[in-house]
């Protein structure tokens, strides 16, 4: 199995968590719900990558969001894609929910109670990633 490191960011505001629906233009898991995520680029720490993904995909940055927790690494195996995803989960708090502005990678966003994650068709391991930063 190919091993791929990614970051997944959960953004919280007033007890609700942001999840986004992946567009048909991304490489994997099209039309599935996820956190803000991206591949861990060479030479970057997972936290640096997390901030970059937040900025690119939501417009959030250290001026309007803050890190709450960096969770333990989670390995999610996808037999169908023959990939092992090494997920570096993060939890951030956003000052205002209306500050989120999606880019092309996601088509929709919703703020949900974290216990509702399992009711959405998500990327593999999203609920488990949330538990790492809960």
What's the helix and strand layout?
Blueprint (H helix, E strand, L loop, with lengths): L1 E12 L2 E7 L10 E2 L1 E4 L6 H13 L6 E6 L3 E5 L4 E12 L11 E7 L13 H8 L1
Parallel strand pairs: 1-7
Antiparallel strand pairs: 1-2, 1-4, 2-3, 2-8, 5-7, 6-7
Summarize the structure in words.
This protein is an alpha+beta fold and 134 residues long. It contains two helices and eight strands, in the order ββββαββββα. It has helices at 46-58, 126-133, and strands at residues 2-13, 16-22, 33-34, 36-39, 65-70, 74-78, 83-94, 106-112. Strands 1, 2, 3, 4, 5, 6, 7 and 8 form an eight-stranded mixed sheet that branches. It is globular and about 40 Å long. The mean pLDDT is 96.
The number of helical elements comes to 2
Count of β-strands: 8
Q: Could you state the order of secondary-structure elements as H and E?
A: EEEEHEEEEH
Largest sheet: 8 strands, mixed
Cα end-to-end separation: 29 Å
Shape: globular
Low-pLDDT regions? none
Query: What percentage of amino acids are in beta strands?
Result: 35-45%
Radius of gyration computed on alpha carbons:
14 Å
Helix content: 10-25%
Indicate the structural class: alpha+beta
Mean pLDDT: 96
């Amino acid at each position: 199995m190919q091993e791929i490191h990614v970051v997944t960011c959960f953004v919280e505001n007033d007890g609700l968590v942001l999840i986004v629906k992946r567009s048909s233009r991304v490489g994997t898991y099209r039309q599935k719900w996820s956190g803000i995520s991206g591949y861990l680029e060479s030479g970057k720490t997972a936290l640096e990558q997390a901030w970059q993904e937040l900025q690119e995909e939501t417009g959030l940055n250290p001026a309007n969001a803050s890190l709450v927790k960096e969770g333990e690494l989670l390995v999610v195996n996808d037999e169908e894609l023959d990939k092992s995803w090494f997920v570096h989960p993060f939890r951030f708090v956003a000052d205002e929910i209306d500050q989120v502005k999606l880019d092309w990678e996601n088509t929709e966003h919703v703020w949900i109670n974290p216990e509702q994650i399992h009711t959405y068709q998500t990327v593999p391991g999203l609920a488990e990633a949330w538990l790492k930063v809960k």
